[in-house]
Amino acid sequence: MKELKIGNKVARIPIIQGGMGVGVSRGKLAGAVAKEGGIGIISTAQIGYDKPGFEKNEVKCNEEALREHIRMAKKEACGGLVGVNVMTALKHYREHVKIAVEEGIDVVICGAGIPFDLPELVEGSDTKIAPIVSTARCTELILKKWDRKYKRTTDFIVIEGPKAGGHLGFTREDAISLENIDEEIQAIIGIVKKYEEKYEIDIPVIVAGGIFDKEDIRHALSLGADGVQIASRFVATHECDASDAYKQAYINAKEEDICIINSPVGMPGRALNNPFQDKVKAGLTKVERCYQCLAKCNPAEIPYCITKALVNAVKGDLDNGLIFCGANVGRINKIVSVHELMQELVQGI
Questions:
Q1: What is the pLDDT of residues 36-51, one digit of tens each?
Q2: How far apart are CA 20 and CA 190, in angstroms?
Q3: How far apart are CA 283 and CA 41, in angstroms?
Q4: How much of the chain is helix, strand and coil, in % rounded to 5?
Q5: Exposed site from 62, 97, 117, 284, fewest CB < 10 Å?
């Protein structure tokens, strides 16, 4: 595999570990991936969930934890690249990006919304930015906006397909059908090339969603991609920041356990069917407290608090937790080290 070059930053292996919140990918996992030559990604979503005082001041705890986990990851990375995934839908999305830049983060990846103002948040820094897109239309919309308003383009781009875990940039029907998106990927690459030519730079394209093994990586590269983003497989690693119970849920999962949910975020999402999902369907869940996580959220109109559900899951209270997963979670059957997983992905062993 060729190394992944994003401007002046180079990852020896063209694999980005996808950001997973709440608390699934923090400093420990991201640092381990970066040390192996990939790009380790910290999810900023409610990252301070386990800090004392979180229930009273989640904003302060999240900001403190973000700085702590970036520093932890960079120390563990031994010079490898570390980034953050910041959901644009977060109420404090701008603050999280700015803190990451202050801490010298290498890359910022933004999804769950359209990050129209992302360039101004990293202005004057060496931090590289990328939006997560799922369609050519969305790609054109973002790159045209950045071109006109900021006179710049993206440093790289992440194309997330319908097999991804968590929140999806597709309709529920498209996520269920899992239609081949090769043509869409190539259409997006075509749009990116226009901006490469205009700004006379290389813009790496990263393919995400359902990437499981070396064959999937090879296929993505054959379409013209420069690298891949993988998330679910990193859950089943010793270094993953989630609880052992959370990891075991992945090991135990079968294909028929996967479902497409309607998330309180307002997007469809892929998750594991469990007792919590049964409670949601039966109308037995409610919002007991608002954690101020989303910019657009009315607690009176949603069936449950997504922060509380994700925190329960990552801590191991699976019966009351939301467990996001990718479409290939049923193929995961053991917990390995990040080193072993990266070797398998690169060598195909």
A1: 999 999 999 999 999 9
A2: 29
A3: 35
A4: 40, 15, 40
A5: 284
Tokens of 64: 């403190």
Prior bond to 22 cis, omega within 30?
A: yes
170: tokens are 């597709």
Using DSSP's 3-state secondary structure scheme, residue 348 falls into coil
241 is written with which tokens? 């920041």
Q: Where are the domains of the chain?
A: 4-242+332-347, 244-329
* Residue 299, helix vs strand vs coil: coil
Helices (H), 109-263: 118-121, 136-150, 172-177, 182-199, 214-222, 232-235, 244-252
Strand segments (E) across 38-80: 39-43
Average pLDDT, the chain: 93
CATH of 4-242+332-347, one of 3.20.20.70, 3.40.228.10, 3.30.1220.10, 3.90.1170.20: 3.20.20.70
Indicate the helix (H) or strand (E) that contains 343: helix 338-347
Query: Which residues, in sequence order, are CB contacts of 315 under 8 Å at separation 6+?
Result: 50, 243, 321
Contact 343, 349 (CB under 8 A): yes
- The pair phi, psi for residue 6, each rounded to 5°, is -120, 95
Mean pLDDT calculated for residue range 272-291 = 89
In angstroms, rounded to a whole number, what is the distance separating the alpha carbons of residues 16 and 207?
Answer: 10
Tell me how far CA of residue 294 lies from CA of 79, 197, 305, 307, 310, in angstroms: 33, 37, 10, 9, 14
304 and 283 in contact (C-beta within 8 Å)? no
List the one residue out of 81, 170, 187 whose CA is nearest residue 127: 81
Instruction: Compute the residue count for the chain.
Output: 349
pLDDT in tens, 310-343: 999 999 999 999 999 999 999 999 999 999 999 9
State the DSSP code for 242: S
